[in-house]
């Protein structure tokens, strides 16, 4: 995971080699595994912006990498946890 724009922005490369800048929204601990939530940095409308959730794993060199989730049920559960944590953060700010 390469961070070129400070702590909140990363450039991710998809399977086709296409690079896109994303804003890091949160790191989620779900059942002992780490996941990260991102949104495309070029999103104009925060309310309807796409949220991308990736799992943090280690490669053979012990480096953290981000991988897509193929399990829709797990993805839904992690997304629900993300929403719960975002709601709790908003309540704390009020």
């Amino acid at each position: 995971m390469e961070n070129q724009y400070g702590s909140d922005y990363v450039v991710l490369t998809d399977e086709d080699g296409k690079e896109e800048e994303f804003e890091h929204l949160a790191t989620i601990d779900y059942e002992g595994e780490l996941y990260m939530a991102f949104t495309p940095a070029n999103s104009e409308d925060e309310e309807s912006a796409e949220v991308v959730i990736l799992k943090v794993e280690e490669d053979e060199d012990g480096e953290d990498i981000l991988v897509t989730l193929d399990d829709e049920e797990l993805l839904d559960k992690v997304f629900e946890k993300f929403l719960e944590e975002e709601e709790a953060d908003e309540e704390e700010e009020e």
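The chain has one helix and five strands. The helical segments are 72-93.
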